[in-house]
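My main concern about presentation is that the manuscript never shows what a single data entry looks like. Each protein is reduced to its one-letter sequence and a matching series of backbone shape codes. For the editor and my fellow referees, an illustration may be useful. For illustration, here is how one protein appears when written out as sequence plus structure tokens:
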Amino acid sequence: MGCESIPIFDFELLATFIHIEHDGESLDGTSTTDLVTGVFPKWINGRSGGNKLQENDPEVLLRLIDEQARDYFRRAPDDYTLLSGISLENYRTPEGTLPSEKINLSGCEIELPNTPRRRFEIPDRLANIGKGPIIQHLTETGYQTLLARVKARSSYDAARKGEETLDLLRAIWTLAGTYTSLAQNIGGKPKPIGVLFLSPVAVTYAGTPGFDSQPSGVYCEFGFTEDRDLYRPGDKWSELERLRELYTSSLNRNPLGPAIENLLRRYVRALDHLDIDTSLFQMWSVLESLASTADEDYSVVIKKSTAIFADASRGWIRDVMSTARANRNAYVHAAEKSSARRYLTRLVKKVVDNHLLRLIENRDGFSSLDEYKEFLGHLCLDDSTLDRRLRLLQLIADYREEDEANTESSKERRGDQTDAS
């Protein structure tokens, strides 16, 4: 892309072309825009070309952004608290605590507020937006209020980290509570496939909020239309918490932990959509991340992703997956919707569930997602091809062992000749 083709004086648009990362930590889009906005006046004041773009202008601007980014990442993270809600029945026990008093995920801590309230207080910044779904949610919702305590360098960063933590929590609970189910709604009002949803409002506070604390940031999903049904595990809480603790412990020990956590967040967000075709599209993307490499076509993806299933069910699952893929393409290329799309999406979710559970447990000791994809590729091979490859691998191992033995023997003979001389 040539310099002249970039609308470089539109700093908000310019920020979309910039990705800032340091030691594996990426800056979110809002913080990137904020950083570029702060640098822009300094760059404008230091230019000498007026409104005409100079050849070295992009280089100078990027250098200033780089310097500002280094200062940002040198800054020690501060304590922040994100206040949000989740579509979960009030699950305080008779003693007034969580099933687990505090839940630690990805270096963050989740807990209930000290007060027994279940509703948000309306932040001053939202008081003047008028009546609508968001204000109705804040005043009437049955969503469970949660606090996520995070370390962050800005309010934007705290909101992102807090939301990612809550997404991971609801992904783990969703996987634990629904992975055996293909049940679907028959008739009635359309609903997303997911069972746990976040509040459309999140509020960040510096440190630990008190009754008089002023928020450092208020973040809204202005496309929000209505509350979702509350998830009511009832007497299944003990099993859900047992599985959550098991999955969390496995992820903490797992070399694939960060990669799986990212996939879990994408997985639960894919289930949020009322438009089931969007859910199918995003869940298929998660499936591809689990099973395929960039150069593999859809038939290989389907073959690899279904290879872990038993022979008795693998054939029909592959057939339905092929149908799901065809429906996905029809939606993408022609906006055609299938009457079976909800069932097809649930089946793709079931396939994804099985891969996620296998990777969370990771009994086979995979060190990377690429190694797991390679394993799936070999798992698809027919017996004769697999036997031939195993024979060749054994020949190679024998050859190397013989070569090492010959090398060692040669060293010993040279040593004997040296001693004799």
